[in-house]
Amino acid sequence: MTSVERTAYPRFKRLITAPELHLFFAPTRDEVESASGATDCDGHLPTLLLMLMLMLKSYQRMGCFPKLEDVPEMVVDLARQAVELLEGPRPRGSHGSSTAGRRSSPR
What local confidence, expressed as pLDDT, does residue 3 receive? Predict the structure, then answer.
């Protein structure tokens, strides 16, 4: 049976090992710098940067944009360290509420 991570509707694994975490979800310096240039909103810059990193790394690994609440805490923490963001609330996004961002259900 195919694992759920390799299906048409990928999800995060329940247990992500440390090597997998750093191999697939650690942002590179270039990615962080590029994302910093793309987010120019001063007041919310750290949060937007964190959200952008989470979406970028999730898409690179899974081929889709997950809801932010579906991203495992360990992935959020790794991205938070990469963008040098102090502890704070978990990022929330509204991209999952639009019909354009929803996955269609299988028929």
Answer: 64
Q: What is the 3-state secondary structure (H, E, C) of the chain?
A: CCCHHHCCCCCCCCCCCHHHHHHHHCCCHHHHHHHHHHCCCCCCHHHHHHHHHHHHHHHHHHCCCCCHHHCCHHHHHHHHHHCCCCCCCCCCCCHHHCCCCCCCCCC
Please say whether the beta carbons of 67 and 8 come within 8 A: no
CA distance 52 to 57: 9
Q: Given pLDDT bands bounded at 50, 70 and 90, which one contains residue 36?
A: confident
Residue with tokens 């909103």: 41
68 in Cβ contact with 51 (< 8 Å): yes
Residues 6+ apart with CB under 8 A from 96: 67, 68, 102
